[in-house]
Amino acid sequence: MDATPRPARRVAVVGVALADCGRVDEATPYALHAQAARRALTDSGLDRSLIDGLASAGLGTLAPVEVAEYLGLRPRWVDSTAVGGATWEVMAAHAADAIAAGHANAVLLVYGSTARADIRARRRTANLSFGARGPLQFEVPYGHTLIAKYAMAARRHMHQYGTTLEQLAEVAVRARANAALNPEAMFREPITVDEVLDGPMIADPFTKLHCCLRSDGGCAVLLVAEEYVQDCRTAPIWVLGTGEHVSHTTMSEWEDFTVSPAAVSGRLAFERAGIGPGDVDVAEIYDAFTYMTLVTLEDLGFCAKGEGGPFVQEKDRLPVNTDGGGLSACHPGMRGLFLLVEAVRQLRGEAPGLQVRRRDGSLPEVAVASGTGGWFCSSGTVVLGRG
Question: Which positions fall inside the Thiolase C-terminal domain (predicted)?
Answer without folding.
Answer: 243-386
